[in-house]
Q: What sequence folds into this?
């Protein structure tokens, strides 16, 4: 079977598994909604100014909700020794990794879009002004989050404190990408177009994605197989 | 007045730097003795078993 | 032999530190704008350089470990990261004290302090991961992978936070005197103390490395003891 076909098979399998039970999606969406609610209490008197920092806030919601999905990625395979079976299968680790990363990407983006809708309504933020630019940023940043998160999910899958370790490891690594995403999203939500300084941040996001995807694909074999 | 406060903080700063490093050295030393104890204990167990 | 080298370096480091401290307090003049507090830079800056050098060495050691699978390099990476983390703590705390006097606040999101804090979090995570994995070879592999990710990230972090600070200017922890250039005597003292701290760090790393090897010996002895 060709590499991309194998990747697709894994991606479809993961998506199907998740859509069947919906446990991670439900937890993630609920979590996102609760954080959005809490923001309301936190920023009560500053409701107007919230719109100005909307870009930053929304990425905090997405980063936290996204990690819930990423945690499940390899953890789901622990039952019935599925993980061992997958590793033993005639499947390159990189295909397994990319397949899972793709599935995670789709799930996290779905969650982001749903919570974006809710966010726009709750905080009266007009995020459609720069729609395609916003989609681009969401795509790029989420891919970075997914690649790093899926990698660390593999790393921490067998550890006792998996749920604690994964966020602790992911967020510091994600800081440059989240920083760039927040800067761009803040501007986009205020209606500004994607140019000038923002293009530098965009280049950062692309660079981040390329570098960490390459690093992850190169090292995933060491982590899974040895 | 400012001078005095300035000096005080300078000493706090130096003290802080040294305390942090000293704490680290103490942590290392404690770990060293713990490891040595464990090593000795295990060596005894293995030697006892071999003698038997 | 190794112990002798260790003691030798330790004594050298101690002597140098003593000499430096003497000079710092008694001979170098006060800085024009900042007063006495500026002397903290003789620890703040060299610690920062030591910590960042350390993280680089750790990254390299991790890479070499993955290439050669020689566990000694894993010991190097772990030891150097831990020692660097101690020095990074010194940077953050001394930076904070300095900020308190100069700016009146305990913390400022100055580009360098912020970046150092991110590095601190990354490498604290590395140590947390190490303590969570029991089997030595797996521990070595996982930490090496994390170390490579962390090191790659460090470069991106420093550049991006500096860029971010350019967009949102704020207080800057400056090590320059009012004139913009450092008095040569001051500058050379920074380097002298850097040397002293690096020697100190080397001693700590060597001791720590020996502990890693002890840990591995314990691990294998434990298996032997339990197996019989």
A:
């Amino acid at each position: 079977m060709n590499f991309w076909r194998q990747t697709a098979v894994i991606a479809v399998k993961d998506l199907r598994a998740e859509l069947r039970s919906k446990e991670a999606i439900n937890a993630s969406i609920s979590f996102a909604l609760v954080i959005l609610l809490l923001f309301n209490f936190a920023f009560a008197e500053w409701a107007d100014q919230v719109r100005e920092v909307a870009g930053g806030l929304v990425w905090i919601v997405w980063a936290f909700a996204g990690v819930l999905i990423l945690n499940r990625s390899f953890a789901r395979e622990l039952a019935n020794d599925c993980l061992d079976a997958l590793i033993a299968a005639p499947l390159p680790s990189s295909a397994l990794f990319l397949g899972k990363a793709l599935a995670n990407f789709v799930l996290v983006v779905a969650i982001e879009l749903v919570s974006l809708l809710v966010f726009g309504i709750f905080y009266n933020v007009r995020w459609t002004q720069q729609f395609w630019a916003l989609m681009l940023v969401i795509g790029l940043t989420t891919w970075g989050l997914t690649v790093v998160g899926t990698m660390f999910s593999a790393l921490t899958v067998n550890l006792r404190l998996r749920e604690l370790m994964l966020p602790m490891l992911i967020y510091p690594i994600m800081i440059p990408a989240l920083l760039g995403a927040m800067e761009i999203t803040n501007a986009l939500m205020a209606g500004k177009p994607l140019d000038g300084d923002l293009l530098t941040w965009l280049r950062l996001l692309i660079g981040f994605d390329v570098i960490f995807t390459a690093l992850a694909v190169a090292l995933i074999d060491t982590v899974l197989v040895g | 007045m400012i001078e005095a406060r300035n000096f005080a903080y300078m000493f706090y700063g130096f003290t802080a730097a040294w305390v942090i490093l000293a704490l680290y050295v103490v942590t290392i030393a404690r770990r060293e003795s713990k490891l040595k104890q464990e090593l000795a204990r295990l060596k005894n167990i293995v030697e006892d078993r071999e003698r038997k | 032999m190794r112990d002798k080298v260790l003691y030798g370096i330790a004594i050298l480091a101690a002597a140098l530190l003593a000499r430096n401290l003497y000079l710092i307090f008694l001979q170098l003049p006060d800085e024009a704008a900042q007063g006495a507090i500026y002397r903290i830079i003789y620890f703040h800056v060299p610690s920062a350089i030591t910590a960042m050098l350390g993280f680089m060495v750790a990254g390299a050691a991790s890479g070499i470990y993955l290439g050669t699978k020689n566990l000694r390099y894993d010991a190097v990476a772990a030891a150097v990261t831990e020692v660097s983390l101690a020095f990074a703590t010194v940077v953050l705390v001394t930076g904070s004290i300095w900020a308190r006097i100069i700016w009146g606040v305990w913390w400022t999101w100055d580009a360098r302090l912020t970046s150092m804090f991110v590095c601190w979090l990354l490498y604290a995570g590395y140590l947390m991961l190490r303590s969570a994995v029991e089997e030595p070879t797996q521990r070595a592999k996982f930490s090496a992978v994390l170390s490579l990710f962390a090191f790659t990230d460090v470069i991106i972090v420093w550049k991006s936070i500096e860029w971010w600070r350019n967009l949102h200017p704020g207080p800057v922890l400056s090590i320059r005197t009012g004139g913009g250039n450092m008095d040569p005597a001051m500058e050379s003292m920074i380097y002298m103390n850097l040397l002293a701290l690096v020697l100190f760090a080397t001693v700590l790393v060597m001791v720590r490395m020996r502990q890693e090897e002890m840990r591995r010996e314990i691990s294998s002895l434990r298996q032997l003891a339990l197996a019989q």
Q: What stands out?
A: The radius of gyration of chain C is 20 Å.
